[in-house]
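User: My collaborator and I are trying to settle a disagreement about how two of our proteins should look. Neither of us wants to argue from intuition anymore, so we agreed to look at predicted structures for both before our next call. Could you fold the first one, then the second, and keep them clearly separated?

Assistant: That sounds like a sensible way to settle it. I'll keep them separate. The first protein:
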Amino acid sequence: MEAAKTCKRRVSISGMLKFLGVSRSGYRAFLNRKLSPTRQRKDAVKKEIQRIYDDSKQNYGAPKIAKKLRDSGETISTRTVGKYMHEMGIRTQWVKPWTTTTRDSDFISELHTVLNEQFNPERPNAVWCTDITYIWTHSGFVCLNCVMDLYVRKIIVWTRANTMEVSTVIETINTAKTRRNTDQPLIIHTDRGSQYVSNAWREATEKMQRSYSHTGYPYDNACIESFHSLIKREWLNRFSILNYEHTYRLIFEYIETFYNTVRIHSHCDYMSPDEFEKLYERAILLPAA
């Protein structure tokens, strides 16, 4: 009958009731039936799930959505949120398996691992990690180079280039040094790519403690590798990227208006990197207050 209303076609109610085997009293009861409180709550929760999901650029899965719901006063389990999302036909973006993208260098004996998968420093600007990834566009590949502060998982600098020349990583790390406080001891972790064993890189990072991933072992640099996978699956892979200029707009929108500032992170106690960093800064100032 609803379909008949949608199509603006006139039908005989009596004829339809007879055809469906429904009594007239049952039909009237159906029209006057009110949703139960349980159903009303479920519908309201689903509406809020959809809002949170859309606000996250359709990236959050059940754990993050459940956390946001609980923060707003809703009592609900992650399992229930996952069930509702399944019913709604929505889910988080699929994670592509990690694959090797860089080759080992010829300076194996000089490259040491300092980080050793210790991804939880006690303060900002204690450990940075950096890497380069490729972004495909209709005009050719664009290289994205990012530097992450491991304390807050924040992207403190990102640059683009048409090539993977050493000058690209030097520009990126020099920008990071101008933006952040590097007075205290700082570890800079990278893979064994040729850019990161060059003399120019060593000069640019001479006041830092350089750390390199083990040969063919991705986990030492897992945090920045994970971010590059994240920006692609959550954002870039949704678009048909035209050219170099188009990549800037997309990367800026993701990192500066979402990832650093809005997107909650389990490592940051379900705060954004910016919020988590400000919490640390306030805690440092408390004794002097």
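The second protein, kept apart from the first:
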Amino acid sequence: MTCLIVDDNPLARLALRNMASEIEGLQLAGECESAIDAFNFLQKTPADLLLLDVELPGMSGLELLKSLDHQPLAILITSKTDYAVEGFDLQVVDYIVKPVALPRLLKAVQRAMERFEAHYPPGAEELGPSYLFARVNNQLLRIDFDDVLFVQALGDYVVFQTADKKHPVHLTMKAVEERLPPSRFLRVHRSYIVALNKIANLEQNSLLVGKHIVPVSENYKGELMQKLNVI
């Protein structure tokens, strides 16, 4: 389970980082010193759990949770008890009053892991988000994985091809490949990543994906055959 630390106090972030590193099964996704930094971070790199200070400059931790369309699990960490009721109205996992002690954090993280596993049991086909946000024409556009037929590299851009639209994004294929779930997408060519469930047929070195022909490189063909469950 990945976690994001959000606290405007550098010493508090350091303490949380050190404690989080000792908890098995918890991986640090990053650190932010404000709610708006966390909001922007989460648009690009989803996290399963927030270790979230409530009193932050500009926008509070509670306001951050309300602003997110897809809210991660959250453990509120603050110096006051005034926010407990509102926090639990937002279905936070736990509420810790500073200073944070490792045994107390362990207890809260264990609750978070139990809730996380209830939603994503071991062996589930898909973990993590079913979408990403990409910057298209100076705005962040949500791209749902279910809509994507394939991704094509074109110069300094990649194009997310859906059934009826193309979304050009200034990214590298490597960056896109790292963000797409490997259970659903596979690179089949230097310039193409395809959605496995959108493949209609394979003929020699080309795929029919929707109404599009996608080339297949010999370097990727072996893994493709395994993924397609060919008999």
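Some points you might bring to the call about the second protein. Residues 55 and 103 are 23 Å apart (CA to CA). The chain has two domains: 2-119, 147-227.
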